[in-house]
Amino acid sequence: MRDTCLMLIALTGCDDLVASAPESPCPPAFAQDETGECVFDEEAVADLMRSFADGDLVQINAEPFPQVTDSNVERNVYITPLFVAPGLDTVDLYQLVDPYRADDELPFEFPVGTAIVHERVDGLEGSTIQVKREEGFEGDEGRQWWFGKYWPDGEPDLVDCTPCILCHTETAHPGTEGLYGVPGDAR
Ligand code: HEC
Q1: From ligand 1's centre to the CA of 2, what distance in Å?
Q2: Is the CB of 69 under 6 A from ligand 1?
Q3: Cβ–Cβ under 8 Å, residues 178 and 132
Q4: Of 40, 21, 20, which Cα lies nearest the Cα of 30?
Q5: Measured in angstroms, how far is the CA atom of residue 39 from the centroid of ligand 1?
Q6: Across residues 129-149, what is the average pLDDT?
Q7: What is the model's pLDDT at position 131?
Q8: Hey, whose CA ends up nearest to atom 16 of ligand 1?
Q9: Largest alpha-carbon pair distance within the chain?
Q10: What's the gap in Å between 88 CA and the centre of ligand 1?
Q11: Which residue, 49, 54, 100, 171, has most beta carbons within 10 Å?
């Protein structure tokens, strides 16, 4: 249908139809509840894990890079672009995090709604995701971040693996909400 319409745009100007496709007012991984508020939603997470490379998230690295803790595994990292402060969004803030600098101190916290996907390029395991949840949410170590792992079709990857919190601990990177970041030469 969309292709037909794109073909027709040139002929009839039916781009109004394309432009009027409903857009969610919520960031990816969130959906509106019955009161219209954006709340964390696992269906929306599954949607995001099928489509994160299609433009809703911004890719941080230029080319796939070997994971800092496992050089046999190639990764891409994507983040939700959200306002943080004048002149600074989540993409800029995340670029300040360096996996090799455990003493990094970020000037701001990531806003609720930030999702970061760590794509497993070879597809042998699912890609992982962290989402900054609402005030009051207590994940591992009481942190405001939710962790998940999904296959490219949006199904959760439930195969046993090293627990996320073994590496993603606030103790290892206390000034960056436990985030590692992408090595500078991969950006
Ligand atoms: C063996 C250590 C290790 C384990 C276990 C691990 N990660 Fe990571 N993760 C890393 C490293 C190191 C990075 C930084 C990027 C890189 O080197 O690929 C990272 C990056 C990420 C990122 C990008 C955000 C950031 O921190 O910069 C997400 C999202 C993520 N991991 C989610 C998960 C989830 C979810 C799990 C559990 C299912 C998990 N990770 C398990 C080491 C680990």
Answers
A1: 37
A2: yes
A3: no
A4: 40
A5: 24
A6: 95
A7: 98
A8: 67
A9: 60
A10: 24
A11: 49
Report the sign of the C-alpha dihedral through residues 30, 182, 176, 82, in that order: negative
pLDDT value at 34 more than 60: yes
Say yes or no to pLDDT of 9 above 60. no
Q: Which amino acid is at 7?
A: M
Whose tokens are 């490379």? That residue is 53
Distance 84 CA to ligand 1 centre (A): 23
- Cα distances from 83 to residues 2, 73, 160, 167, in angstroms, run 31, 31, 36, 28
8 A C-beta contact, residue 139 and residue 133: yes
Q: Which atom of ligand 1 is nearest to the CA of 129?
A: 29
* Assigned token pair, 23: 């857009």
Tokens read off for 43 = 């269906």
Is the Cβ atom of 120 under 6 angstroms away from ligand 1? no
The 10 Å Cβ neighbour count of residue 4 is 8
70-115 pLDDT, tens per residue?
899 999 999 999 999 999 999 999 999 999 999 999 999 999 999 9
